[in-house]
Amino acid sequence: MIVLGLSSGTSVDGIDVAAADLELDGKQVWLRPLGHREVAYSAGLRGEILAALPPAATTVEAITRIDTGIGREFASAAARANSELAGGAAELVVSHGQTVFHWVSDGRALGGLQLGQPAWIAEATGLPVVSDVRSNDIAAGGQGAPLASVLDVLLLGGRPGVSAALNIGGIANVTVVRPGEPPVAFDTGPGNALIDAAVRRATGGAESYDAGGQRALRGTVAPALLTELLAEPYYSAAPPKSTGKELFHPGYLPPADRLGPDDLVATLTELTARTVADACAAYRVTEVIASGGGVRNPALLAALRRHLAPAVLTTSDALGVPAEAKEAYLFALLGFLSWHGVAATAWAATGARHPTVAGRITPGARPLRLPPPASAPPARLLLRPAAAGARTAAGS
Prior knowledge:
By secondary structure, this protein is α/β, with parallel strands linked by helices. It is built from 13 helices and 14 strands.
């Protein structure tokens, strides 16, 4: 079936949407990328989301308005993607929505809030929508993150050595796949979150990220500040673990008068690279396959290569999964498996007591007719070549 996956990460850059042709074939699942695009949030909605994120205070009214606003903009993105990427043939939409709070207490995840009312998507497309994909894992004692491990474990199984899939969004996470051992997956710490916050502070919001890594490349790493930042207790905590902007928010930054803005960005870029590399070194990783918005930052990639060596760093493009759309394809896969009754979360990695079927379903224009449940979860993900004319686009 053709599935649309939609997501917006912790950087709140916009909506990533991908169309995938998926087939469940016994112990393997096939994925053919049909195309992806990034759709910018409207300026007003993005401002509302950022204003509501921790540690800011908000109201029930604001959350309700944001929930509807995200739902409408996700609905528009899905309808457009169905037409332009899937030729109107999509059968299912999977929406992760926008995370606005991830509740962790004493190392245990107790809940999370992803906004973006799926009823708007179902209304706009006429298709059923799988949403709220983290809650079942959390209810079973898991972290509800990183869900990327669902795709990573299936894709990287059988590769030589120890492989790590790295996603660099606002928060960075890794999935480590080791021959003969259970996978390990966890958030390593800030990906782009603190870098973006420093750039926004330095520019009064005129810039929202370090474009081309230019600020980091101009700046100089401050060793004393880096040492202080690396002392954060989260980094030494054992997995399973997860985090978010509840910890790594703008208030986490040192005072603005302590360091020049470019030096601060350089130091925070080094922090992300060091914490990722330290996490991988603990498992003797031999290759790191990166994805997410952070792969567009050459300063961050250079720092990662330096600290990860001798492990080899590449991107998921080399495996046939576009690095900037990997999470959208992940959610398409996750919802597809849920549609077929497959409990596919990497529960051993999230810390859950047992595997769970992810999400809940909002009906579309027609009555729901689910297929018979699959007899067993797949063991491998195989990529078919991207469809001829598969589109990659950015737009509003």
